[in-house]
Design goal:
single chain; about 325 residues; alpha+beta; three-stranded antiparallel sheet; 9 helices; about 20% strand
Length: about 325
């Protein structure tokens, strides 16, 4: 008797990794078609919606009994990924474990595999959930979602009518803080704000001194962003999380965690956590502040001259903002 596909998760993941969906340009069509084939073969009805034929989105619904108000759950995955550090799909052995390595293995074809296997198993075993389960596999998450989530929610909101919950990437993995293990559940995300800044100044030649040029201004701006945090923002979600961490932590460390919730002492407490070597200090820093990071800087194309106006392109400053402050 053959093993059902939902139990062959390594096989599903390897297949998904073999599709090069590096974004840009994405080109998720072949990957989505493979997922669509698995779902339709299992008897699930799917809908493909696309702003560009090469960048489709897939929506499949497993009908529920309707006994779970106010609406269905919506597992959300995506088919694209960033430029990979490892370009070839492979399975590697580490001790008694096999690790999948390749394009998008972690971010997030592994998650897509789990969601897909769960829905396929539910269908095969005749599960009738209390509410509908809507599986959504989207394009273009890594470059702004214009072809994916934004397109679906603006042009096809009927696909998610009544949806009460969305399950996406992130959460579920363990974190150890001060010897105590925690399992995080992602319930909110910051909003993205991409900005471009242009700095102007006198141009010149590499053979002569130049003071106050655009490149110098750019250097000062980069240094300022690097050396300073944005103001503290303690949102209700972060407050509940940190209070729960403090409640479970040993007494001396618990007090340090509680200091994070005092806006006058948040930054000092973060610095102390970093000095203690707590790896989650960076994560907590991001939870308690809006953040801005320079990702691209562009200026002269010739090494012999200094430009009058180096420009940061539209993706130059990648900010993450708390939604209520956006």
């Amino acid at each position: 008797m053959s093993v059902p596909i939902y139990e062959r998760t390594a096989e599903i993941l390897q297949t998904l990794i073999r599709f090069d969906t590096t974004n840009p340009p994405g080109n998720e069509a072949a990957c989505i078609a493979d997922i669509d084939g698995l779902l339709t073969e299992a008897g699930l009805q799917t809908t493909l919606l696309a702003k560009d034929p090469q960048r489709p989105n897939l929506v499949a619904r497993l009908k529920g009994s309707g006994d779970a108000p106010p609406g269905p759950a919506r597992p959300c995955g995506r088919g694209d990924h960033r430029q990979p550090e490892v370009d070839a799909p492979a399975l590697r052995r580490q001790g008694d474990r096999r690790l999948a390595v390749g394009r998008g293995a972690l971010d997030m074809k592994g998650d897509v595999t789990m969601m897909l296997a769960a829905v396929l198993r539910a269908k095969a075993e005749g599960l009738v959930p209390a509410g509908d389960i809507i599986l959504t596999i989207m394009a273009d998450e890594e470059a702004g979602s214009d072809y994916g989530a934004r397109f679906l929610t603006e042009q096809h909101p009927e696909q998610f009518e009544g949806a009460a919950y969305a399950i996406g990437e992130g959460g579920g993995s363990s974190q150890t803080i001060f010897g105590q293990r925690y399992y995080l559940i992602a319930v909110a995300e910051k909003q993205v704000c991409w900005m471009r800044a242009a700095l102007n100044g006198p141009g010149g030649h590499g053979s002569t001194p130049l003071r106050g040029g655009a490149m110098a201004k750019l250097g000062r701006l980069l240094s300022t962003l690097d050396a300073n945090r944005l103001p503290v923002h303690i949102t209700p979600v972060a407050e509940r999380m940190i209070a729960a961490l403090a409640e479970a932590a040993p007494a001396p460390q618990a007090e340090l965690l509680r200091l994070l919730l005092d806006p006058e002492r948040t930054d000092a407490a973060l610095d102390e956590l970093a000095a203690l070597g707590v790896p989650q200090a960076r994560m907590l820093d991001a939870l308690l502040h809006n953040t801005a990071n320079v990702t691209v800087a562009a200026a002269a194309t010739r090494p012999t001259s200094s430009p009058a106006a180096p420009t940061w392109r539209s993706t130059a400053v990648a900010a993450r903002l708390h939604a209520r402050r956006f």
